[in-house]
Design a protein that fits this description.
295 residues, alpha/beta, 8-stranded mixed beta sheet, 11 helices, elongated, binds guanosine-5'-diphosphate
Amino acid sequence: MFDNLSDKLDKALHVLKGHGSITEVNVAETLKEVRRALIDADVNFKIAKDFTNRVKEKALGQNVLTTLQPGQLMVKIVKDELTELMGGDASGVNLSGNPSVILMSGLQGSGKTTFSGKLANFLKTKKTKKPLLVACDVYRPAAIDQLHVVGDAIKVDVFSDRGNQDPVAIAEAGIAFAKANGHNVVIVDTAGRLAVDTEMMDEIANIHKAIQPQETLFVVDSMTGQDAVNTAKAFNDILNFDGVILTKLDGDTRGGAAISIKSVVDKPIKFIGTGEKMEAIDVFYPSRMADRILG
Ligand code: GDP
C-alpha cells in the first residue's frame, strides 16, 4: 500500500493528527515504524531501539508535529542520524609503510580473498602502487589456488608456500619477498572458519602480532545481518581492527549490518563489495547507505 518509510510515517502522523492532540506517545508509535524498518533492514534489535530513542528526542526538539509533512521531516531526522552514525573518518587505507602491510580478517566465505584482489586492483589502478598478495590459508589448498586465479586476473603477484603449515612464517616470508621485489603494498589474506573459534582467533592474533600491519581490515558479508554484530565484536576484541569492509551489497540485503557493526565497534566502514568481479569495489558513502537502509 505504501512504497516507502516516508509515506508510512506521513500517513501514521496524519491519522494521529485527525484524532485530536498529538503527544509524545503518538510520536513513539510512529517511531515503532522506523524501528520496524530498521529491523527489516537487518539492524540489530537493541541498536535499532537505542537509535529510535535518540531520534525521538530530536523529533520532539524540532517540533516535528507542527510541520505540514511530519513524516518527511521525521525521515530527514532519521536519515541524518543514520548518516552520522555510519560516518566517521573513512579516509582510505593507511599506506604509510614501506611496504605497507594490510591484514584481512573475517569468517570463511565473507569475501576476504575476493576483496583482497579487489583492493590490490584498486590500489594498483588508482594509487599506482605495486601490491603483492600473500596466501596464508594453510587449511584449504583451494583458497591458495583461488588467490592465484585472482592475482592472474588482475596481474598482481601472489606469494604462497604450499608445503608450509605455519601462517605466521608465510606472512613474514611474504613481506620479505615484497621487500626484495619492490612491492610497496602487501595484502595478507588469512584463513577463516564458518564461525568464530579460539583456534582461528589465536592464529590471526599471532599473525597480527608478528607482522604488525599498518592496516587491519575486517571483512563481513552484509547478508549475515544480525550475526554480523557478534562476529565484528569478536574480531575487534582480538585485533582492534582499523576498518570494516562490507561485501555482497549487490544482493537483496538492505545493509543494516553497517549500522549494527558501526555502533558496536565504532570503526569506519571503508569499502563495500558490490559483486564478484574485481572492479566491484566502492568507497563507502554513509549517506547512500542511509538511503538504502530506509528504502
Ligand atoms: P573468503 O572465504 O572470505 O575468502 O571469501 P571469498 O572471497 O572466497 O568469497 C566467498 C564467495 O562470495 C565467492 O563465491 C565470491 O565470489 C563471493 N563474493 C565475494 N564478494 C562478493 C560481493 O561483493 N558480491 C557478490 N555477489 N559475491 C561476492
